[in-house]
Amino acid sequence: MKGVLKNLHRYVTWALVSLFFWAWIFTLITDAPAGKKLILYAEVPALERQTLSEALEEAMPDHIRFVEARPFSDELFQPGNLLAGDLFIVPESKAAGYRDTFTPIDPQAFAGEELLYLDGVPYGVYVFDEAAGIRRGTGFVSYEPGQKYGLFFQAKSKHLGDWNGSDDDAAIRAARRFLRLP
Q1: How far, in whole angstroms, is CA 104 from its chain's centroid?
Q2: Where are the alpha helices (DSSP H) in the chain?
Q3: How confident is the model at residue 168 (pLDDT cuts 50, 70, 90)?
Q4: Taking a C-beta distance cutoff of 8 angstroms, is the pair 55, 85 a contact?
Q5: What is the Cα–Cα distance from 127 to 144, expressed in whole angstroms?
Q6: Nearest Cα to Cα of residue 140 among 95, 89, 94
Q7: What's the number of CA atoms in the CB half-sphere (13 Å) around residue 122?
Q8: What does residue 64 show for φ and ψ, rounded to 5 degrees?
Q9: What are phi and psi of 79, to 5 degrees?
Q10: 124-163: per-residue pLDDT in tens?
Q11: Across-strand partners of 90?
Q12: CA–CA gap between residue 123 and residue 3 (Å, rounded)
């Protein structure tokens, strides 16, 4: 027993090394490169992550392995990942602060939708505006009453097609799918 206690620090060290190694392996197996996944970040009070992810996956091309919906609060645990997002649901009151991250959109891509403009340029699509009767995705997303929310696109997304010269338009497809959700 004395020998075990004397070497306890070695056992703990090896246990921690093993834990980090297997966590890294798990991440390699379950994650996908940016070109094969689509991430939606939402700055909202509540989000049905799994069901929203599954609903958006229905609109994806075959090469997209998965869609992941995440709340902005995830950024607290994985700093820097926010910039890996493709789509963002953000309150209109905070949208100007993210303008450098977002890309202007083609108004024709969302003809018939209420567009959100920043300094006269269309950057997003309204997804929630109680006064205007816009309530998109409320079965998956809880919006803060009295706030207006828009759906925006990450300028460096690998899924904007002709908008930024990327290989596919999966983010635009996901946005259109979101706009059809109850």
Answers
A1: 18
A2: 2-6, 8-30, 49-57, 92-95, 170-180
A3: confident
A4: no
A5: 12
A6: 89
A7: 12
A8: -80, 115
A9: -55, 140
A10: 999 999 999 999 999 999 999 999 999 999 999 999 989 8
A11: 150
A12: 66
Mean pLDDT of 109-133: 95
The answer to whether residue 27 scores a pLDDT higher than 70 is no
The SS3 assignment for 91 reads strand
Cα–Cα distance for residue pair 128/126, rounded to 1 Å: 6
As to burial, measured by CB atoms within 10 angstroms (0-12 exposed, 13-18 middle, 19+ buried), residue 166 is middle
How far apart CA 154 and CA 46 sit, in angstroms, is: 22
Name the pairing type of β-strands 87-91 and 37-42: parallel
Length of the chain equals 182
Q: Find tokens 């958006």 and name the residue.
A: 56
Six token digits for residue 145: 């009453």
**Token duo for residue 53:** 């992810």
pLDDT mean over 39-59:
91
**What does pTM read for this prediction?**
0.78
Tell me if residue 1 falls in helix, strand or coil. coil
Q: Are 43 and 150 in contact (CB under 8 A)?
A: no
Per-residue pLDDT band at 75 (split at 50, 70, 90) = low
Q: Please say whether the beta carbons of 171 and 162 come within 8 A.
A: no
